[in-house]
Amino acid sequence: MFDIQTNVQIKKGNPAAFKDVFRMLYPRLKGYCKLFVSDDNKVEDLIQETFITLWEKRNSIKTEHSIESFLFVILRNNCLNFLRNEKMEKTTFSIDVEEVSELQYLYQIDFLGKEEKSLEEQLIESFQEAVDELPDKMKQVFTLCKIEGRKQKEVAEEIGISLKMVEKHIAKAKEQIRKKLMNQYPMLIIIITLLLD
Fold it and tell me: Which residues does the UniProt record annotate as the domain RNA polymerase sigma factor 70 region 4 type (predicted)?
């Protein structure tokens, strides 16, 4: 989603670049975070901590890599650390008996010692490919409304179509993207649903 120039500006500590990245990614980061944590205040805290971590680690950013994937991995780890700490505070018995879940699978993926892309990176790349494959008008409407967060009415007026048509384009785009991602990642139905909400 972001070009290499944005990554360079983030690495240089340009506040405007941080603001743009926050504005563009906040809705999707919030939806992703709510998969792990239901408390709205804690969700805000975790997203804030994620951007603080990005700021602190900006010098180590590899500008040719996706800043978006980097943020999703940081947020996921922050969420899982929060859940682990919360569980340890509430219980005194062993956590060894916990059943293997999708979340644990996600957590372990970074510790397999492989140089492969993280699941988030793969999912985001597939998501971007699915958006790119949409018909032109549908892609334009979906990008403006769901990725850039613009109001549907404003987009309808800007590109000269009815509000109803904007809603139809978005619904069809979500269906096409969902179908493509579900074929590739059938175990991640919850995450895919949240990404498209």
Answer: 125-176
